[in-house]
Design brief:
The chain is mainly beta and 171 residues long. It has 2 domains: 69 residues, no CATH class; 94 residues, no CATH class. It has no helices and 8 strands. Keywords: Glycoprotein, Integrin, Membrane.
Length: 171
């Protein structure tokens, strides 16, 4: 039959230890299979595996046992990332008669301001770090300026690398 074990966590010599009582007294020649489910937090910095030291201790004075085995469990962090984006205004149409003013440092002489906002969301289940997002923005079309990249900003402790040609005319 299947039974639930009573296990007690505690710390010994700086290690986290879980002690489970398997049977007392246990009949000679008894075979026991134990399935354990452990919940471990903070695995982001553990690398690609976590190691458990399992030890079977017998209190039998006639044949004491302290059999030990090391079990290595591979760890794979999983996270689903979602990128959301918006353009403000959503649609922009330049008048047919509009022309860019060469050499001007006024924003309105370079076109209509369009702001693109992107949000990168982690939908879990794991946390993430060291994420790199590469965003290609078409700034030229047919050798002419399509979008003049004015500035790049971030929120939430992220850092960005400015693309080449960012605000090249110092508008």
């Amino acid at each position: 039959g299947q039974e639930k074990l009573s296990c007690n966590p505690r710390k010994e010599n700086g290690s986290h230890v879980v002690i489970c009582e398997l049977g007392n007294p246990m009949k000679a020649g008894a075979r026991i299979t134990v399935d354990m489910e452990l919940s471990v937090s903070g695995l982001e910095d553990m690398g690609d595996a976590i190691t458990f030291q399992l030890q079977l201790r017998s209190k039998n004075s006639l044949s004491p046992t302290n059999a030990s085995v090391t079990v290595t469990v591979p760890v794979e962090a999983q996270a689903v990332m979602e990128l959301r984006g918006n353009s403000l205004p959503a649609t922009t149409v330049l008048p047919v008669s509009w022309h860019r003013v060469e050499g001007s440092r006024r924003l309105e002489d370079h076109g209509i301001k369009v702001e693109h906002v992107y949000q990168l969301h982690n939908k879990g289940p794991s946390t993430v770090s060291g994420v790199t997002l590469r965003l290609a923005v078409p700034s030229q079309l047919g050798g002419r300026t399509l979008l003049y990249l004015l500035e790049l900003g971030t929120e939430g402790g992220m850092s960005c690398t400015d693309p080449p040609g960012l605000n090249a005319e110092q508008v």
